[in-house]
Write a structure and sequence with these properties.
Blueprint: E1 7-11, H1 15-26, E2 30-35, H2 57-70, E3 74-78, E4 80-87, E5 92-98, E6 103-108, E7 110-113, E8 117-119, E9 136-138, H3 139-150, E10 159-166, H4 182-196, E11 201-206, H5 216-225, E12 230-233, E13 238-242, E14 245-252, E15 257-263, E16 265-270, E17 272-274, H6 278-284, E18 304-306, E19 309-311, H7 321-341
Helix pairs in contact: 1-2, 1-7, 3-4, 4-5
Length: about 350
Amino acid sequence: MTKAGKTALIIGGGVAGMEAALRIGQAGFDCVLAEKEEVLGGTVLQLSSSFPRWENPLELVEERISQLKLCGRIKIMTATSAIESRVSKHGYSVTLQSRNGETTNLDIDAVVLATGFGMMDVSVYGEYGYGIYPEVVNSLEFEARIKAWSAGLGKVPEGVAFFKCVGSRDRSKGYPYCSKICCMYTAKQAGLVKDMFPYTKVYVFYMDYRAAGKCYEEFVREVIEKKHVTYVRGRPAKILPEGGKLLVRAEDTLIGIPIEVSVDIVVLASAAVPRRETGPLAEMFGAKADKYGFLERQRFSLAKASDRVFFAGGCGFPLETLAAQQEGASAAAEVIELFAHE
């Protein structure tokens, strides 16, 4: 049964946005899914595996896209951004613009913001050489390296070092908050390297690790005990080029001695931050953001940001794929409830 007369706009086509659009459409309401990139999927498209099940995240994206296309209530608009919004009698009049400059005007009854999160520019940590040494990369950039290795491309590394909390929990150069997902995706990446190259030395430098989720602790212990990734408690002090390698200087705070390791690649777990478009969209739709730029929920609501405006996924705070899906479903439930009561 269809329910004509109500339309929701979802801005952002990652897993949270796709989940919200799918559930609203399957409930019988019209839905427009606008994604600024050429394809749907968001950050998940860059990932090579997931935690804690070692699953291929692309399979989730492909399955959700197929479901979206089967639902006749959903219109997908890629390479499209919202550029203007005005309050109307029953919602908002929104102008969307494609990359080729074409505009579309929509009258919508509710909007879900699902713009995701980005990565902090960690070049401010000059001691780590990001942007100077080509083999110092952030965690998302390293996902591309993993995919290349999986395809048989690139040189086998003799050593890889991961630095956690680069920009997170750092009041001097970064942000005081924990970015929540870094511990787990770092363990995942380290484990994948050992799966591909058992004889590569892999180090994870950490202050502590946080594995608060179902099967998360077991996942990290598997990486340490079965895949033989070396965890070193201590923040590295400096990276120096040496003989075509990268020399990592740090202190093992558990045993109180300085250490040096020579590796081919250093991976920085950069702090997660709001995307640049989240702030202007929040202002456009009257949504509140916290002092860092992440969207804020209204009291007693799981997903409401302002009148007829909801949000889901990493634009509220960084989170793993499953939680992004769950938030997308939660935002959809509030939209469906709003429409049903009207």
